[in-house]
Amino acid sequence: MFASKRNRFGLLSLVVSVVLVVTKFYAWALTHSQAALTDALESIINVFTSGFALYSIYLSGLPKDENHPYGHGKVEYLSVGFEGALILGAGVYIFSSAIQALLHPHTVQQLDWGVLLLGGTAVANLLTGFVLVRQGHKLHSPALVGDGQHLYLDAVSTLVSCAALGLVYFTGLVIFDTVAALILGVVIVVNGYRMLRRSVSGLMDESDVATVERVIAELQQHRQPPWIDVHNLRIVRYGANLHIDCHITIPYYFSLEEAHAEVSRIEELIRSRFDVEVEMFVHADPCTFSACPHCSMPDCPVRQHAFTRLVPWTLDNVVKNERHQLDEPTTA
């Protein structure tokens, strides 16, 4: 269901991008404005990136196979990187073109029609961008979010172009048009870099701290006596889906069936808290007597030390690959 929704919104982005790029180039043909040309050139990128985002969303929705045991979700980060690279390149070109226009001033004409057409595309981009970002977060699709954020930027660029043309109309100073193009070039370059950075983070499995903290909070809230400690927690996002693994320390005298039951409880707990597919693997470690002071297992038949207190599970200790100990030394 999620895949089909992502496909529909990806198609919406592509259709809107094609219509708006034609409109913007028509506005540039009427006005010969450098700012309008800047806006139109950026919109060409919208068409390519929306098409690639649609394809990546389709791929990410494919089921796992022998060659892709974790699914195809990573391709959405590639889509964001592709979009960021194109935006960065366009920003550099736009900035250099604006420098040339500054050195060689040009005339601007039919400003009323130009502002009207560009203003209409700005409204369309804002509405489409809002829908894509909202649905992208809801459907956990980095490609949709990235595409929507790009449309936001495109709308802002268009509004700056409209403001510049308005100033030219009322003052007769063409310099406003060129200055607007320079500003837009810088903004576009910065945005392209940020998108590339986000893409690299996803492809390199950079830790999603918010998701890690959410999992830790769920484990802490529903903590059970046999779960003596949780450590080496790792979370990798594959598009919308999550792969989670961790180690759980449980009483060493548990049978294989009892250990399996506790592991299953943890896995079901976490899966039930996310509305995306969660693949979770829990490795069970046997406890040692040094864990007795922070083990609340009732009627433990092998306890060597009195229970002192539980060690709270936090981001600082759960992600480490080491078992938890109390700060104070234990006594026999």
Automatic annotation (TrEMBL):
Limits of the Cation efflux protein cytoplasmic domain: 211-287
GO CC annotations, alphabetized: plasma membrane
Gene3D superfamilies to which the protein is assigned, alphabetical: Cation efflux protein transmembrane domain, Cation efflux protein, cytoplasmic domain
UniProt keywords, alphabetically: Membrane, Transmembrane, Transmembrane helix, Transport
Compartments, record wording: Membrane
Membrane topology of this protein: Multi-pass membrane protein
Top-level taxon of origin: Bacteria
Domain named Cation efflux protein transmembrane: residues: 11-204
Similarity comment text for this entry: Belongs to the cation diffusion facilitator (CDF) transporter (TC 2.A.4) family.
Name of the protein this chain belongs to: Cation transporter
